[in-house]
Amino acid sequence: AFEGFDIDTVAAFGGADIERLLTDAGIVRNRLKIDAAIFNARQIQALQQEHGSFKNWLDAHHPRSKDEWVKLFKKHFKFVGGEIVGEFLMST
Predict the structure, then answer these.
(1) Mind listing the pLDDT tens digit for each residue in 52-82?
(2) Per-residue b/e over 55-91, b at no fewer than 16 CB within 10 Å?
(3) CA angle, 9 as apex, 20 and 16 as ends, to 5°?
(4) How far apart are alpha carbons 89 and 66 in whole angstroms?
(5) What is the mean pLDDT of residues 15-40?
(6) How far apart are the first and last CA of the chain?
């Protein structure tokens, strides 16, 4: 549904893509979450432009406590909290 979560592709999603996603029974069809996924992809693009890569942005803020990471992610992204940030950090 999200084109393999390719950042540039998701960041370019428009109205037709949102409508397609809202009818896709294979995903959570919540407009706010769909909008957040697109917004977050655009935020990653902005961080990549500013820092050279998303990894460089992460590295620039290392080390931090989990609570500090959650605050940082909430500053830049939508629909992120302790569980999401914790799982993301574990995966990286």
Answers:
(1) 999 999 999 999 999 999 999 999 999 999 9
(2) eebbeeeeeeeeeebbebbeeebeebeeeebeeeeee
(3) 25
(4) 9
(5) 97
(6) 23
Give me the residue label for tokens 């917004």.
Answer: 39
pLDDT in the model for residue 89: 92
Rounded to two decimals, what is the model's pTM? Answer: 0.94
Question: Mean pLDDT across the stretch 36-65?
Answer: 97
CA-CA distance, 10 to 63, in Å (whole number)?
29
Q: Specify the residue for token string 């890569």.
A: 53
> Which residue, chain included where needed, has tokens 């896709």?
24
**In the structure encoding, which two tokens stand for residue 1, read together?**
């549904």
Sign, CA torsion 30/32/88/65: negative
